[in-house]
Design brief:
Layout (H helix, E strand, L loop, with lengths): L1 H6 L7 H9 L7 H35 L3 H5 L1 H32 L23 H8 L2 H27 L1 H5 L6 H41 L4 H12 L2 H20 L7 E4 L4 E6 L9 E7 L1 H12 L4 E3 L1 H10 L11 H20 L18 H19 L1
Parallel strand pairs: 1-4
Antiparallel strand pairs: 1-2, 2-3
Helix pairs in contact: 3-5, 3-9, 7-9
Amino acid sequence: MAEDSDLEKTEQASQQRLDKAREEGDVPRSRELSVFVNLLASGGGIWLLGGGLVAALQTFLGSNLRIDRAEAYDTSAWYGHFSHSLVGVALAFAPLAGVVVLGAILAPVLLGGWLFSLQAINIDLARINPLSGLANIFTIRTVVELGKATAKAVLVSTVAWLMLSHNILSMLGLGLESTRAGLGHMASIMWRIYVFVTLSLGIVALIDVPYQLWSYANKYKMTRQELRQEARESEGDPQIRAKIRSQQREMARRRMMTEVPKADVVVTNPTHFAVALKYAQQGNRAPVVVAKGADEVAVRIRELAAEHAVPLLEAPALARALYRHVELAQEIPDTLYSAVAEVLAYVFQLRAWRDVGGRMPVIPDKIVVPAGMDPFEEVAAKSSAYLVAEGELS
C-alpha cells in the first residue's frame, strides 16, 4: 500500500518542476480571458475615440463621394485625392488599433505572465503523428473544451437573441427616422448588445480562469517518489550530505582545538562542559570564546589545556552560561563581564605568582552569574513545576 501511494500523483508540483514547464513554454492560459480583455479594449477604444472616428469617416465619405467633372476624367488626380483621404482615415483609426493590439499583448499577462520560449516552437514529430492526434481527440481535456465551447456559444447566442428580440421594434423603425437620428439610434442599440455580450463572456472567463489554474496544477502534480528523486538530484544524496556535514564539523573541531593552547583560561563544569577564553587587551573589547565543548569534546579541551599549561578553573554556572549563550570567536556578553573579570583576575595573579613568586592567589569558588544565564536554572525550574503539578494531582 505504501508503494502504491508513492506512485500516485498526490503532491503539488515543486517550484523546480514549474520552472521547467515554463522554460518549455507551458504556462496556464485562458482563451476566454483573452477574448474578454480584447473585447473590453476594443469597446473602450471605440467609446473613447468614437467621436474622432465618426468625424474621420464623414470626412472620408464626403470628400470621395463628391467628385467634380475634372477628377472624374483624370484618374491620377482622383487616385491621389482618394489616397490622401485614406491616409487620414488610417491615422484616425491608428489609436484604436494600438489599443486593440495592446489589449491582445497584455491579456496573457493576467494569467501566466510574459513568456518567451524557443522550446515551444521546436519541431516535435510526435505532435504531427496521426495516431497521437487521434488519441488526443478522446481525452477528458478535449471533452471539457468541447463542453466549454458549446456552453459559451449557447450563452452568447441566448444573450444576443434576447437583446435583438427586445430591440426588434426599434430596429424596424430605423427606416422611418432621419439619417442622423437613425444612425445614432442604431449605434445605441449596437452598443447595448455589445455590453451584454461582453458581460456574458466575462462570466465565462470568471469560470474558465480558476479551471485553467486547477487543470495546470493537476497536470503537473508529482508522486512522492518524484519529489524524493528531485530532492536527491538538486541537493545530493542525503547520506553524502550527512557525511560532508560530519567532515565539516570535524574540521571545525580541529581548528577549534588549535586555539586551546593559545587561551588564557579554560572554565569547566568540571566534567560536562569546558570553555576556553582568550583576552587580547590590544585587540578585543572583551574576552573571546576560542573553544567550547561538552562531554568528550570537553575532556579533550581539558587535556590540551593541561598539556600546554593553560589554567583550568572550575566554575560550573559560568561554564554552562558561556557554553549556552556565547558562540565561537564571539565576545562574551555584558551580563557576564563581572563573572569573567573574577576569572581573569585570578589568571593574571596566577601568572604573576609563577613568574615572580610571592603569595599564591586564592582560587575563586563562588563565581555567580546573573539570573537567567545559567541553563541549569531552567531545568531546575521545570522540574520544580513538574513536581508541584504531580503533587497537586496526587
